[in-house]
Write a structure and sequence with these properties.
Helices cover 69% and strands 0% of the residues. By secondary structure, it is mostly helical. The longest helix is centred in the N-terminal third of the chain and has 25 residues. The radius of gyration is 15 Å and the shape is globular. The N terminus is likely disordered.
Amino acid sequence: MSISDLYASGTHKENKSHFASIVRLALVDNVIKKGEQKLLVHLAKGLGITQEEYKDIFKNHHKYPIEPPVSYDDRIERLFNLTKMILADNEIGKNQVFLLQKIAMGLGFLKQNVKRLNYEAIHLVMNEVDLDEFIIAIKKLNVK
């Protein structure tokens, strides 16, 4: 196996883990709404999740631990995707916000910043900022 194969498989494993976190957020209220389903399909394609993996992740989403990417920008992008899922059905549930905080800590964001960080992430996504603006804003907020 070449180095590029190892990297690709490691990245794909991270992508499956990330998709499982997104599914957990979507299922926190035990219902997948139309907006959530549309976003799930879109993100699955973007993450290279096969139809078979999609079904397995839905069925066994708790079997996939959070695997944060090494890149800080990639971790912020994960937060962006997760926040978009919270807002996909135009409702923000208390349980979704709590789960987002736990996932954000699993992604490596500082515990003392997570509540403020998630509040800002929700605010930014509600205001339809693009990923580049989101990354800049989160970097300014997530300081030690």
